[in-house]
Design a protein that fits this description.
By secondary structure, this protein is α+β, with helices and mostly antiparallel strands. Among the domains are: 9-107, Methane Monooxygenase Hydroxylase, Chain G, domain 1; 132-212, no CATH class; 327-389; 503-513 and 578-605 and 637-642, no CATH class; 792-904; 1019-1075, no CATH class. Helices cover 45% and strands 12% of the residues. The strands form 9 sheets. Strands 14, 18, 22, 23, 24, 25, 26 and 27 form an 8-stranded mixed β-sheet that branches. It has a 4-stranded antiparallel β-sheet with strand order 13-12-17-16. Strand 19 (763-766) and strand 20 (771-774) form a beta hairpin. The two termini are 75 Å apart. Residues 622-638 have a biased composition (Pro residues).
Amino acid sequence: MEGIGRPQPINVLLNLRTYISNALHNSQQSKSISAINKRFMSCFGVEGMPCKDLLEFLGFVKHENSWEPPRPNAWAEFPYRDPLKVFLDDVIHELTLLIEQRPPLEKKGHQLESTYHSAKSELLEALGSSNYGKASRLEEFQLASAPVYEDLGVVEDMSSTSIVEAYNRQVSVDPARTSLYLKCLKTIGTLRGGEDEAIIDTAVQLAYSEGKYTDDDVIDAYKYFGLSHGDKRITDDNIIGKFYAFLSATNQETETRTQLWRIGDSRGSDRIKSAAEETNANKVNDSPTSRDLARRAVEIIADARNSAALKHFFKTGETTAGEMDVADAYRLLQIPDRTVDETAIMAAYTICVDEAPTQAEKYNQALQLIANDKNSTFLSSLVSGPLGKSDRNVSEWPVGLQNIGNTCYLNSLLQFYFSIRPFRDMVLHFEDFKMEITDETLGKKQVGSRKVSKKEIERSQRFLGELRTLFDNMITSPSSCVTPGQELARLTLISPSNEAAIRRRSTITANRPAGLGELDGMPVLGPLGPPQAIPENEPKGAAAHEAEKIQRSTVSDVDSELTLVSDGNKNDTSTPHHDDKENEPPAVDTVMADAPAKETLEADESGSPKGTTGPRETTPIPDQPPPVPPRPVPPPDPQRQLKEEVEIGAQQDVTEVINNVLFQSQCAIKPDSLAPDGEQQDLVKNLFYGQAKSYILSKEGVRSKEEWWCDIKVDVATESRDIYAAIDGAFDVQKVNVGDSVAEQYGAISRIPPILQIQVQRVQFDPVKKRSFKSTNHLELKETIYMDRYMDTQKPEVVNRRRQCWEWKKTLRQLEARRNELLRKNDADGFDMPALFESAREVLDDLDTMKDSVDTAADAIDIDPEISSGLARLSEAARSELSSIDQEIKNLQSMISSQFADYRSLAYRLYAVFIHSGSVSFGHYWIYIFDFERDVWRKYNDEYVTEVQDIDEIFANQERANPPTPYFLVYVNDDMKSRLVNPVHRVVQEQPPSNEQSEAATTTTTAIGPSTSEDVDMNPPPAYDEIWPDGGTSGTGEVHYVAEKGKSPAGAEGNRDAVSGEWTPKETNVEDVQW
């Protein structure tokens, strides 16, 4: 009830006593009580009905809108002879006693006079319990909400010293319940406060120093380690594992051990208590300040003796090493949190094995223990060696790829490209596709709208050569996994344009002499090495040339970068020794160590740098110190440099690596034809690349532009959505600025590739926090999507449907914006608009009721009743608008999703899903690939390839924090899928090849097995207007068949290009669009 707070028990007793006292002693004040009086209802419920039996028992009579108090006979003689007066007098005395028994804090603020003599002291005297210390501050103590006094066997007015004594006696006779008694003692101290609390707290701290604890302390101890006290599944191993994880990550060792000991003692576990106690207890007890020294002594002795028992004793405090337990397993794999998912455990295991292969058996044992503890068949299936051999037929199952160092997304890419049948066949038979490098072919070579250099082509051909070796191993290896080469990883992860800069940076960093610091920006070098002899056959002027290089050491890195970039454009007339000049070790601290040879040669020919005259030897260098002789520089380690480059490449964006693979593949092979703009057309372009047309509608007219693309970029930054809504965002109309006006822009697909790649842009930027973050909003995938709606066409029916859909989406955005306003999404108070109006109305009503109370009437505020009713109307209006908007949004979403439901001619099937688990800065990658022939999804997780048992793992929205999310999707043309993809291609060799055979496999494909080329001669994907002919009904979903090579579907008009099975631009262009 507005304006009336919840009454305390003493208020109810006082009000009832007043009603009865007036009825008995002051009939003039005893008036009828309104049943809807707020003060009356706050004490006795709505209209007094909850207390109806009590009131009628006391003589009250209920009328229609009021209660009539008891009416005793006013003329009855005194002392009372009227039974009702006697009864009411008894009630008053009983109420007075109940009021007197209320706690002191509750009685504060009430003028109470004791009207009776308590018999308590006489009763205590009779029972022989009156002689105990009394508390002097009894009236200030808070009332206990739990029976803490009773549990401890004391009374509330007992002195704190007596209560402490009672606690000690209880603990001595009933030690099993010490935690309960200590909890009661602590609670009593808190309730008393002041000096009494100080007396009790002294006893509490003494108890803690003796190792005692309360029940609440045990619960807090579990929470300290991130565990739940009520979880019956927690074992001693779980707890000890958590303890060691915390111990290695905190400097509060004493607190951590204390918390563990409490858990162990409460569970009655000697093993947990042993782990909590010091392993070098005797030495520490002798000299507590020598704890670190004692621990170090035990460690040194254990290492000197190579004693496993001492090492185990040092780590755990136990005298026997025994078998590895689950806690040891987690600790060995460096997993501090046992609640992590299977993917994180697998990633930790993989890293440990990669860093210490000789300890693989021990890591396998640890993983098996964790798998058993979690009852995880998935983790059990990952265990390699004797603990977990697969019973699968390797000739019918794909091989895994060993992680060679933080490159798990590389393995996902390699698995994907291997499964693409035409691409795999091209790689395996690379010699048939390899481009011949001549001046003529170089002059015509254009990939990605730019000319390609000879060096890029040679590098790309090395890349496909390395890829062919891997694919060969993936086909023929009898093992369950193979290892990609470091050189393949480098060529895959690092693009040709980035390779020079990375190589230059690593070379300069590795070979530059170590300095001793700087003075005024000049390096301070260490002592000179031994003098270097100059070869007798060194040409005259070589010493001067060396001095010249030193003099030029102040040239900036920018010049070097420019030189590197332009190096590829120079002719190849220089000697082979200088073709890769950036790999030469620099002299002294020369920054220009990677400069090309041409400048050096020009300087040498004249004996002086450009712009000077006369011999270099006679040119004085004023105000400069003499040149520093060159130091001997050790040759760079090729293996180390290769590894460093792979690690740098692994930091590249995944989509950059995908583009690098496709670019190099095109650079390495010869073209099938050339487009009018000179762009190379080939198998890679036909498989993975499409064309999109962008239209701009402005007041000047309609403009269009066509561009190549290899993936569609979609966004899930703001909310979860399905795959159609995500793709819509790439092609829907939007407002753009064109000059001084605003125009409309939208896109459409003019040529769709048979392998459709979709990039999910997960990494977003938070402008408020000024940092990147990963969006984990769910993307609802569909096994089949229909791309008809996105194709470029001028058919009025399609164009009109698109425009209608755009209008619906515009309305939908407006409704969602209004809905967010009504829900106050940007406000943190938790109120939507209906609740806000309602809350304001309640506040005004509370203020208005202040005038009904004697205590607050003076501060009351006059409130216009119309304001309150107006707020109620606003609340109802906002609630009604929200309901209407929700219904409109639902209707619009239904219309949008069904707008193109009958356009089902251009079907694409989901084939591959790349997954990332982690954050922006780190994480783990794997891929799911669907096998259409066997109708199964497989999970490719580095060296482990497993069958997916529950597809919700891929498609369901995982309702948890930071779930694994798809970041790259691949759909394939449904009519062509059997010719496009083939995940399982194995021709396992019975015996491992010899070294000579292995070497031969890197240069020839004869050992690969039967050729699959006949499966690869596939027809091109149908053009949009081929499967949707103008003569038919648009969007009817009729079945159209792609012609097999040499065959024509019944009733088809003679399309010679389609029958021939060759890729032609004509088929993939749209007939009714003007380019």
